[in-house]
Write a structure and sequence with these properties.
heterodimer; A: alpha+beta; Ubiquitin-like (UB roll); DNA polymerase, domain 1; 2 domains; 5-stranded mixed β-sheet; B: 290 residues; alpha+beta; Uridine Diphospho-n-acetylenolpyruvylglucosamine Reductase, domain 3; 5-stranded antiparallel β-sheet; 4-stranded antiparallel β-sheet; 10 helices; 14 strands
Chain lengths: 171, 290
């Protein structure tokens, strides 16, 4: 078995590993780096639960080889919060109850973050199109769309004021 | 799911890639975006001995109009194509690029990878057939240009040699009076096409159809040009009746399999309907461009 040495930057931190060429990026993140926030859902490039940012573009990490990411900047769900302060998307998913079982949530948030990078104020149709590569089997998407709308509004308004993770509003 | 073991190289330029393909002929497979190949590796439907990653090979993703044609580099992603200001003037290609897979697939999947992969339900081959595109294949001894209508031989099988790289796809520049459209039926977002229909219509100054191109995907072992439908359109004035006749002709040339996407009769009926819809839109766009 031959391995290849790769270097990547994950959530701002330089990481290295010796990997088999057939190792998938999602397994590098979860099994080698211990970043289990990125989920494996369908494992067939459909569901988007494994979505991460690869050099700033959203990608399904079950459909990328770790060796393809050599030299790349990678961002995962673990890189979204700023210490105890949730990213506006994370807070919005909490506030709007944009999840039930939560399995799709990391991928959904990473795809939504990419979408808002591309289009800071998407309309409902653009949001639904933007997350069409991410499947949720619980919510029917209504609250996910609301959460992305909330985050879009906050990011647009430049509301970067810290929001305490525990400070949710009832109702 | 874990792919079978393979070797991996990332050549710095095209010459190096071609040398590797020759040295490991029949064993090596090119990797671009990976969104077609990696799922096959994981299912172990493909088990190449060597993957040649095209990532570091520069200059193969341009989208340019020359005096003669429109040239799209093989490494151009579906998203680059969809967002290109040049492609905005080519509505068929714009339709196709924006409807492939989902946003993540479009971020990374490439036109060259999709065309070389030749999945019988993929979208680009239909457009290339309708548009009479040309496919540039580069080997160590030089370049050859293959007509799209001679390229798609069978399921996952094309005219490209194992020692060649697909470098570019060339389309005729859009003349006045021409419009195109792509319509596809899919069960849900991101699914492969149950059926996909690419149409190009060119009208002369009197409003008569002087060129018709119809490419169909998803309903036969390999995407096909619906030449009988094209013949039914040539020299006619656009009308619902003419479009319906073309739809019947396109459906008669299909050879669909009954599967989870539907039975044979249903798929044939969908080809006829999609032909009608694509022709309506293509004709509107042709008139708007006259």
């Amino acid at each position: 078995m031959t391995t290849q040495h790769i270097s990547v930057t994950v959530n701002g931190e330089a990481r290295e590993a010796d990997v088999e060429p057939r190792l998938l990026l999602v397994h590098l993140l979860r099994d080698v780096f211990g970043l289990t926030g990125t989920h494996i859902g369908c494992d067939t490039s459909n569901c988007g639960a494994c979505t991460v940012h690869l050099n700033g573009e959203s990608a399904k990490s079950c459909t990328v080889l770790a060796v393809q990411a050599d030299g790349a900047q990678i961002k995962t769900i673990e890189g979204m919060a700023d210490g105890a302060t949730l990213h506006p998307l994370q807070q919005a998913f909490w506030d709007q109850h944009g999840l039930q079982c939560g399995f799709c949530t990391p991928g959904m948030i990473m795809q939504a973050a990419w979408l808002l990078d591309q289009n800071p104020s998407p309309n409902e149709h653009e949001i639904r199109e933007g997350i069409s590569g991410n499947l949720c089997r619980c919510t029917g998407y209504v609250n996910i769309v609301k959460a992305i709308q909330q985050a879009s509004g906050q990011l647009q308004a430049g509301e970067s004021a810290p929001v305490e993770a525990a400070a949710t509003t009832a109702g | 799911m874990i792919p079978a073991q393979f070797d991996y190289v990332r050549p710095a330029n095209l010459e190096e890639a071609l040398k590797i393909l020759t040295e490991r002929e029949g064993e090596a497979k090119l990797l671009a975006g990976g969104y077609s190949l990696i799922p096959l590796l994981k299912l172990r439907l493909a088990a190449p001995g060597l993957l040649v990653d095209m990532r570091d090979i520069g200059g193969m993703d341009g989208i340019v109009e020359t005096d003669d044609d429109l040239r799209i580099g093989a490494k151009a992603t579906h998203r680059q194509i969809h967002e290109s200001a040049t492609i905005a003037r080519y509505p068929l290609l714009h339709d196709v690029a924006g409807g492939i897979g989902d946003p993540q697939v479009r971020n990374w999947g490439t036109i060259g990878g999709s065309v070389a992969h030749a999945d019988p339900a993929s979208d680009w081959p239909a457009a290339l057939l309708a548009a009479n595109a040309k496919i540039v294949c580069r080997g160590q001894s030089g370049e050859r240009v293959v007509a799209a209508r001679d390229f798609f031989l069978d399921t996952f099988t094309t005219a490209i040699e194992p020692t060649e790289v697909l470098t570019e796809i060339r389309f005729n520049r859009r003349p006045r009076g021409q419009g195109g459209a792509y319509t596809k039926l899919e069960r849900r977002a991101g699914d492969f096409a149950t059926a996909g229909l690419a149409a190009i219509i060119r009208l002369d100054d009197g409003g008569t159809i002087m060129f018709a191109g119809i490419g169909v995907t998803g309903v036969s072992p390999s995407p096909y040009a619906a030449t009988d439908a094209e013949a039914a359109l040539m020299g006619k004035r656009p009308s619902e009746e003419v479009f319906r006749a073309a739809g019947v002709a396109a459906a008669a040339m299909s050879d669909p399999a009954s599967d989870t996407r539907g039975p044979v009769d249903y798929k044939r009926a969908m080809v006829a309907e999609l032909t009608l819809r694509s022709l309506r839109t293509a004709t509107e766009r042709a008139l708007a461009n006259s």
